[in-house]
Amino acid sequence: MLYPWLATLPPLIVIILTIATRNVLISLTSGILMACLIATDFSPLSALTLAIQRVAEETHLGSLVTKGPLDHVYTFSFLLFLGVLIQLMNHSGGIRAYTKFLLTFIKTKRAAQQTSLVLSSTLFIDDYVNNLTVGAIMRPVTDHFKIARAKLAFLLDSMSGPLCILVPASSWVAFILAQMRASGISQSNHDALVQQDSLFVYISCIPFILYPLLIVFSAWIIVSCNLSFGTMRTFEQEAQNTGNLYGGKPALYTTTADEQFKGTLLDFIVPIATFILSFLGAVAYSGDSVIFGGSAYFMQTLQQADPFWALFVASMIAVSVTVLLFLRNNAQHYRYIAQAFFDGFMLMKNSLLVLLLAWTLSTLLKNDLQTGAYLASLLPTELSVAYLPLLIFIACLVISASTGSVWGTIALMLPITIPLYYKIALGSPTFLNNLYPVLGALFSGAVAGSHFSPITDAMIMTSFSAGCYHLDHVRTQISYASSALIGALAGFSLLICLPLTLSYGITLALCIGTGFGVTLSLLLIRNYFGK
């Protein structure tokens, strides 16, 4: 590629077209075609061939023959089964029974939203499980209280990914620890740049993973103090005044549930409990856990497990159990099973297509155009350690938002950041203490980028889970998450002014204090002015 800066055009085109056309499919397709044109030096036929090839590869269907990775096959299957599971619970009356039960305890709009946050806090092991499970559980409850679907999407997105990176017992952390060891942080490898246990280093940098901390804090403050501003205020007012939960648009999904099936609480609890327990069991099995006679304990199990296979197996088991439960209670109504499978596919088809296109664009940007590597190369190599957290945060924010991948950003930036820090800070008496905010900034920026881009899988999955229009979620999320973003920028900016010799505790207190103070102030000010 003659001009490396061209690699930044496809994500820019996607974002601009998304704003202009409000059509994610058109925007992603245009971005893919532009990426392929750039990668093939603007040869139309070669670009079209490359686009078809990359889309086909991202389905991972070829891996059924070649025995390659099946992550996307498992993910598509999981989502289809999940759609069927939701429809089965809807047809059986389980969702109505569950909603009626919860409403005996949840009496206010605020309590409904707080319940969503509490449920998310308990499902930190995987962001997909967190997002989709809580969405399925809370959607009928939030609908009852006329809470805009976009608001539910914000509550889901603000908790799922951030909690997975903050709690050192999730599928995210297992991936991150492996990347840290490969990038030069290892106690067992004598050639490692940083001779420390990767888990110890990660736990030490958690308090500096500032943006996830601030967005979780923001969600609780917004709900508990009943704050509303920006684009979200318009959606919330529309929902309360007219009952339209989609900002004045037609309902995104319609249901064909038959009211003749009254259902019981078990028709909801059994499917959801089966899914969660099956997922945990599948994670343990695929991770060679001692529970199944293997040799791996908790953290090693998480590192070795295949979460995509586990999601597929769990959803398949849950659907099978739910079908049997439905037939046990309604043996003469077989046709509703077929109807649930059809409705589940129709429920998921658009989300699957958007997800496939987003993955394709991400792969093109990563492998064919190396957009992330180009953006990372713009980082200055000669600078003070004090500037690194802010610069790394901004770089990861831009790369994550541009490529649509949190994990991809982390995998790209860790091998760049650790040697860069080693080169600058080697010999410093505070070598480790100053490394923690640098790594915290890296993880913060990667998560923040996923909250400000329409092409990230996190945004796409959340839009489906909440049942809202994707672009509505993007717009309202940006409106609410910007306060946390500015707070994180303020916290990392303060580090530039602090002496490098300060203790870990003082540096942490000043950084976090500034971030939380700025975020809270912005939330209250914006609520007062409604902007």
Spell out the key features of this protein.
25 helices; single chain; mainly alpha; 531 residues
H/I helix tally: 25
What about the largest sheet? none
Helical content, roughly? over 70%
Strand content: under 5%
Uncertain stretches: none
The N- to C-terminal Cα distance equals 43 Å
What order do the SSEs take from the amino end to the carboxyl end, as H and E?
HHHHHHHHHHHHHHHHHHHHHHHHH
Name the overall outline: globular
- How many strand units? 0
In short:
With 531 residues, this protein is mostly helical.
SSE inventory with pairings:
Layout (H helix, E strand, L loop, with lengths): L8 H13 L2 H16 L4 H15 L4 H4 L4 H22 L1 H9 L6 H14 L4 H18 L4 H9 L2 H7 L4 H13 L14 H8 L4 H15 L5 H13 L23 H21 L11 H7 L2 H23 L5 H34 L2 H7 L10 H16 L2 H20 L5 H20 L6 H10 L3 H28 L6 H26 L2
Protein architecture, described:
There is one protein chain. The protein contains 25 helices and no strands. The protein is mostly helical.
